[in-house]
């Protein structure tokens, strides 16, 4: 309502939360904008389909939902089952599928590590959140989303309860409208705005309404309500929608629906085109006055919402012409700096809602807003900066770890490098080399490692770090390390760390253990070697303590790099969804860049 009121001139005052209170679960309350009764906006009402109490009660019980990591393993298993179609198609053509069971095992381990990374970062930033400096909301966001998604996809009863409530609320909205305006002829216009898992609920309910004349209550099969409310729906706005993931990963959710969906002239996308819905015998069942204008909005940094091209293909395959939803109606952009904000920032974005309001809602002849808002565009620098932030922080963690260790060793051995700038420059150069070793060691555990181009990239990253080290390391540090021989040892150790991801067994967690374990071994040997040369009066415990803290900071840097790389490659660039779309069509994936290959047939 606030976004709607902001379109007025002047903008309408902000209304308190109590203005919208529905009193109790399942009740329906119309809220209207605070404008005079003769204003055009006074004809627009707002109501909510409230279902948060269902997952909240299940979470409170504590014995229904699976723990996130355990459920993530089952999701990886679903991806494995989805790939079986590719394997069968490959075998029928005498070919070999690209991926193996070990690939999915590693993928499950990576998902587990990502969940762990979110927990670790969330715990570390507790202090900054309490002081108001910075708040990391991603952990809470993902836990809430995973809980809702698990409840909707895996538990038929709870899903049916929520969807039935949707039907009932929309039916009650129409009943109250007709009671308040008995002289109104025809159907009022309903526009549905749905967010996150709510888009899945709304889509299922709309498909049910298109498939059947009535739905039954999950608690009482003798209670049925009509679904003719679908004839009043004119617009459908989805923000941060995961519908595509649900279509790909849980195909049985849609099995009963897609067998019944069929429209006459389903390919038409003309404005105000009538839609004739057919029954199983291709007889006319009833008519939609016009297509439902569906507009989808998603930020490229949103971990949950994506474009919905699989959804459009699903509608085409089932000849459902009820929606006016083309590729031009799918709007992606970069407008929010952080992933947690990207998933919830739509609600406060006038550009997103303004486009839907002025191009879908207010399109009747006497609408108060005549100018059509353009689609939401990218905010300057958001895409570049939001992508770079986690990698910069990961590098700073590497640098902080080395600086802490460097100063402890110097103090313990009573060594002095002339000035602080030289200390900082030495640590900076070493940090670049260590970061390159981390990247080269972790990438093979996060991608399809048999691709030659990834091997070339990792080699190039290590060579860049080695060249940077050779060219810019201060002479004072070379002397401290024992001259040329010591510098060669440093490069050799970095090369070993870079190879850790390639030589580690193809099992979950082994890549990170080899990387951090190898670094720990190298660091231990180096400290022992230098302490042997130290005078007997040198204190050892400060170096040991600094080494432990440095290893912890380095591990955090590795975790953050994993999270950022996984995030940007598989989520922001949609590689995961693009790959599963190819699997759905029994097409294997091209290892180079994981792009869909030509069909096996």
Automatic annotation (TrEMBL):
UniProtKB keywords: Membrane, Transmembrane, Transmembrane helix
Transmembrane segments annotated in the record for this chain: 381-406, 426-445, 457-477, 483-502, 514-532, 538-567
The UniProt record lists the keyword DNA damage: no
Protein name (database record): MFS transporter
Organism: Paraburkholderia translucens
């Amino acid at each position: 309502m606030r976004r709607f009121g902001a379109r007025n001139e002047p903008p309408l005052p902000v209304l308190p939360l109590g203005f919208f209170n529905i009193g109790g679960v399942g009740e329906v309350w119309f809220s209207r904008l605070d404008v005079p009764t003769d204003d055009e906006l006074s004809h627009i009402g707002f109501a909510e389909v409230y279902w948060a109490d269902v997952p909240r009660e299940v979470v409170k019980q504590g014995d229904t939902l699976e723990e996130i990591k355990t459920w993530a393993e089952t999701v990886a298993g679903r991806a494995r089952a989805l790939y079986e179609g590719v394997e069968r198609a490959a075998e029928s053509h005498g070919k070999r599928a690209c991926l193996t069971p070990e690939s999915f095992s590693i993928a499950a381990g990576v998902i587990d590590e990502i969940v762990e990374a979110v927990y670790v970062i969330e715990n570390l930033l507790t202090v900054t959140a309490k002081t108001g400096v910075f708040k990391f909301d991603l952990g809470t966001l993902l836990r809430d989303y995973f809980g809702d998604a698990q409840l909707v996809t895996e538990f038929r009863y709870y899903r049916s309860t929520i969807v039935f409530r949707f039907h009932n609320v929309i039916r009650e909205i129409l009943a109250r409208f007709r009671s308040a305006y008995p002289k109104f002829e025809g159907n009022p216009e309903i526009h549905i705005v749905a967010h996150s898992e709510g888009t899945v609920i709304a889509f299922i309910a709309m498909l049910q309404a298109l498939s059947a004349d009535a739905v039954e209550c999950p608690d009482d099969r003798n209670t049925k309500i009509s679904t003719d409310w679908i004839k009043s729906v004119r617009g459908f706005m989805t923000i941060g929608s995961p519908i595509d993931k649900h279509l790909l990963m849980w195909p049985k959710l849609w099995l009963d629906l897609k067998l019944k969906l069929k429209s006459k002239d389903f390919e038409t996308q003309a404005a105000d085109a009538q839609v004739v819905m057919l029954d199983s015998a291709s007889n006319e069942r009833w008519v939609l006055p016009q297509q439902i204008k569906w507009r989808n909005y998603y930020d490229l940094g949103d971990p949950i919402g994506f474009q919905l091209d699989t959804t459009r293909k699903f509608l085409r395959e089932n000849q459902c012409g009820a929606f006016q939803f083309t590729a031009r109606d799918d709007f992606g952009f970069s407008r929010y700096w952080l992933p947690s904000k990207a998933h919830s920032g739509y609600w406060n974005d006038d550009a997103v809602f303004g486009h839907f309001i002025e191009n879908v809602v207010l399109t009747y002849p006497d609408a108060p807003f005549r100018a059509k808002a353009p689609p939401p565009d990218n905010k300057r620098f958001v895409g570049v900066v939001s992508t770079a932030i986690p990698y910069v922080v990961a590098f700073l963690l590497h640098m902080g770890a080395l600086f802490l260790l460097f100063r402890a060793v110097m103090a313990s051995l009573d060594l002095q490098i002339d000035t602080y700038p030289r200390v900082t420059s030495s640590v900076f150069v070493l940090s670049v080399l260590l970061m390159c070793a981390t990247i080269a060691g972790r990438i093979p555990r996060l991608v399809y490692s048999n691709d030659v181009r990834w091997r070339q990239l990792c080699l190039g990253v290590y060579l860049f770090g080695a060249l940077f080290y050779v060219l810019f390391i201060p002479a004072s540090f070379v002397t401290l390390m024992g001259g040329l021989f010591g510098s060669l040892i440093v490069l050799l150790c970095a090369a070993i760390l870079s190879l850790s991801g390639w030589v580690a067994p193809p099992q979950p967690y082994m890549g990170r253990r080899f990387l951090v374990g190898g670094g720990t071994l190298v660091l231990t040997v180096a400290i022992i070697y230098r302490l042997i040369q130290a005078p007997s009066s040198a204190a050892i415990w400060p170096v040991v303590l600094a080494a432990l803290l440095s290893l912890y900071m380095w591990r955090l840097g590795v975790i953050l790099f994993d999270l950022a790389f996984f995030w940007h490659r598989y989520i922001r660039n949609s590689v995961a969804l693009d790959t599963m779309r190819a699997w759905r069509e029994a097409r294997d994936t091209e290892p180079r860049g994981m792009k869909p290959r030509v069909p096996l047939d």
